[in-house]
Structure formats: C-alpha cells, structure tokens
Amino acid sequence: MKEYGDNFIIITDEEGNNYELEHLFTFEHANEDYAVFMPTGEDDTDMILFHIVYENGEEEYENIDEEIYEEVYEHFMEILFETE
C-alpha cells in the first residue's frame, strides 16, 4: 500500500488493480484502531473499513478478520448515526 497525499491512499488488489481511497475517519473498537475509507471513483459509493496495525511506527491497513467484522461494522454504524 502506498501513501498519496494527506487524506488519500492507493491500494493494490491481488490482481494488480489500483484503487484510490479517501480516508474519512479513524475509530477505536475493543482497544483496536480501524479506519474508514471511501473510494474516489464515480461508481464507488460503499465505505471500506480496515484494521490499522502499526509496523515500525507506521500505520498499515489490513482486512478485518471475518470473525469480528460484523461487530466492528455495527460499532462503526453506531458512531456514524450518533454524529448525524
């Protein structure tokens, strides 16, 4: 994953396709940090959640484990609707 600007990153999937994502916000759940991104493409409207891991003082984003994804997503939705 490569950093791009202050609020944007470019990720590459397993097939080598690049996607530009805008960082919207970061939240904590169960003592772990998670980041919310929005794809910048015109057709992309779904937000994407990543687990933040810290490697050598740098933030890295990884997919959330399937076992806890629903729990993390529900917490994210609570935060989202609290701020409206």
Task: Explain how this protein is built.
The structure is a single chain. By secondary structure, this protein is α+β, with helices and mostly antiparallel strands. The chain has one domain (2-82). Helix content is 20%, strand content 49%. The chain has one helix at 66-82; strands at residues 2-4, 8-12, 18-29, 32-39, 48-55, 58-62. A 6-stranded antiparallel beta sheet has the order 1-2-3-4-5-6. A hairpin with a 2-residue loop joins strand 5 and strand 6 (58-62). The longest helix has 17 residues, at 66-82. Residues 1-5 have low confidence and may be disordered.
List its traits.
84 residues; alpha+beta; 20% helix
Main β-sheet description: 6 strands, antiparallel
- The Cα radius of gyration reads 13 Å
Structural class: alpha+beta
Q: Tell me roughly what share of residues is in helical segments.
A: 10-25%
Compact summary:
The protein is of the alpha+beta class and 84 residues long. A six-stranded antiparallel β-sheet has the order 1-2-3-4-5-6.
Task: Describe the protein's topology.
Blueprint lengths: L1 E3 L3 E5 L5 E12 L2 E8 L8 E8 L2 E5 L3 H17 L2
Antiparallel strand pairs: 1-2, 2-3, 3-4, 4-5, 5-6
